[in-house]
Amino acid sequence: MWSVGDLWTYSVVLDGQSLVDGSPELAGAELDLLYGTATLQVLGVEELILGEDIIPVYRTVTSAVVVGDGRGVPAPILGSVDGYLTAALTLTEYLRVGDLALLEYDKHIVMTFTAEISFVEQTVDIADFVESGVYSPPLEFYDFPLAMNESWNSVTNLTKTYSGSSDVVTLPEEPEYFDQEWLFLVNATGDGGSPGCENSTKLWQTNSDGEVEEWRWWCPEVNHYSSRWTNDIALGGVDAEMTLLSYQPATNVVSVNVEINPVSSPLNSEVDCWVNITDSSGNNVSGKSGYIYLTGVNRTSFTTSDNGSAFIRLKVGNTMDDTPTSDDWATHGVVAYLHSDQSVGAVTLTLEGSAIGGLLRLEANQLAAQAGAIAFLLDSQFESSFRY
User: DSSP readout, 155-204?
Assistant: First the structure.
């Protein structure tokens, strides 16, 4: 789980040439790789309405600045010049607390080009715009708990809108709608590419044609990805790779711990749930009030007793998630949220399917292992062909 104030710092490399190849406005230009750093921070916990459910979400902001050389770049007024490109990205994302599924984002991009003419630098603005996106249903990159050879499909609609100006790409005046179908696969465990992340898990995202859209190494030691490659960090197809440099967890926070028994339940059953609250010194906190959230079930209020704990008998319902797998009917986050402290805690509840479904899932597991072997081959081919 994350806390407000958690901070991750990454090194960033962008493939600027892919921007040129996809933009008629930059025809004939050459751009080197762009290098820089990015910070990703949890700034708040809020509630959003999703369908008929009220759900808690994290609000995170990623800020990055990258710089790279360019040659023959057509700049306003100056014409075709050599120099360097500076791109600044501010990405605000709203992620469901229970499973980190992405609901909405706002991506603010500012780009300038500094021309070097006769040892004199002149900077011109070439882009300043915001791309906003809404996923319906949310895009679930992770299906916790992560298991080797597990795979799942995700079908979602992405609505994009734009505001601002750009001399690099043409911004659509009307909203864009994209029906997307993704396959996600867990195919490796091991070194995630950053110190302390030797027990990481690698996930792949591919489109319906089998083309790689993204991969990530999820590192449990830092509660986030330790390295990531994406085919579309911005502008409809700019490749980027991010590698973790440091992780700084928030301090002086209220800790919310959620426990359930059992952790795997039949449909339409009940589980026992405990919410335990401690302060930054580890002392139990009594009289704390909040809500328990579970998809498909009305939120339930609680207040901690003298021992800092609250007990709730929770109906689990029968709501299927958006990423059913070969192993379960659904996995949902059971989330406890303290509004006054903007603190959350969560645990994963697995809803079991029918006995007949279990036999089908057993067969699907065998197919998933075969898919894992294919993904391993894809992994090796991808690494050898990537420009970096």
Answer: EEEEEEEEEEEESSSPPPSS-EEEEEEEEEEEEEEE--SSTT-TTEEEEE
